[in-house]
Amino acid sequence: MRAVLVGEAMLELSQEGGLWRLAYGGDTLNTAIHLARSGVDTAYLTALGTDPFSEDLRSRWTAEGLDTALVLANPSRNPGLYAITCDDLGERSFTYWRGESAARALFDCAGIEPALAHAESADLLAFSLISLAILPQSGRDALLALARKVRANGGTVAFDGNYRPRLWPDHATASAARDAAIAVASIGLPTLEDETMLSGEIDAAAVAAHWQGLGCSETIVKLGAEGCRLPDGQIIPPAEVLRPVDTSGAGDAFNAGYLGARLRGEAPAQAAIAGHALAGWTIMRRGAIPPGILRAGERARHDVNVS
Q1: Which residue range(s) make up the domain with 256?
Q2: Is the dihedral of CA 15, 72, 176, 219 positive or negative?
Q3: Comparing C-alpha atoms, which of 122, 117, 126 is closest to residue 1?
């Protein structure tokens, strides 16, 4: 099975003791790395610069098993940058320097047409509301057109409604982009907290009804520490309550666990368990992409009975 994820990858600063550690992250990139680590043939469609930091990112992603053939180059731009700070409960906050990142001009890069033609044949195409937020309207339209072609070719399209208010001029623009993406998706991965910020909706069932009503039948609403709501209304909780070290990338890890399981043919309930296991592993380590992988024994400790 072939997966293509689309979005923005950035340099990441996180604190270790009194020093700052340089790594990388980005919502769809985090998911892509986890999928590649699990053995899924995964490519990332984005743009970087031609600077030394960009070359280092390409090398690191290749070492993780990620296919970088769709990572395009923009010689006039560099990667974005963000810094993570965490409170005593592991909750994080971010500071960004991303206004001129190369990924914002992805659809203007040389090589974009053959990259899109390659992506059309993916078994899974995944992107997020952040993927749309960083693009101009022409780029958003092109990404949605790609999603429609993947669906027409029999592929699956997954969309995460990852809402970051600072990336949008207003709620109305963000809501319209979200709804347009929902309409081309077959798997929806909204987070209730994001949906509440965007629309004011506080009920997971109502969120699911909105997404399913727009055509995204397999909508899984992420509920944070409470687990997730499946399309049939069943709530799948995490196997254990954890005291997180760093919640960065938790939702992205859940997405990877869920989507990887679905690509393997597992049912939504079992896929949710896989998502919780990977998210739980991630939040007990620092950084959006902790080194290492979730081992089979660790996965087994997260298994629960599903009726």
Answers
A1: 2-301
A2: negative
A3: 122
> Would residue 108 show up in a list of annotated catalytic residues for this protein?
no
Tell me, yes or no, whether 219 lies in a domain: yes
Among candidate residues 27, 67, 160, 252, the one labeled active-site is: 252
CATH code of residue 12: 3.40.1190.20
In a domain, 307, yes or no: no
Total number of domains constituting the chain: 1
What does the DSSP assignment read for 63-82? HTT-B-TTEEE-TT-B-EEE
How many CA within 13 A on the CB side of residue 152?
Answer: 8
Indicate whether 52 belongs to any domain: yes
For 139-171, the pLDDT digits (tens) are 999 999 999 999 999 999 999 999 999 999 999
Lowest mean pLDDT, pick from 24-33, 51-60, 141-150, 286-295 = 286-295
**For residues 241 and 256, what is the distance between their CA atoms, to the nearest angstrom?**
20
- pTM of the full predicted structure? 0.91
Residue 182 lies in a domain: yes
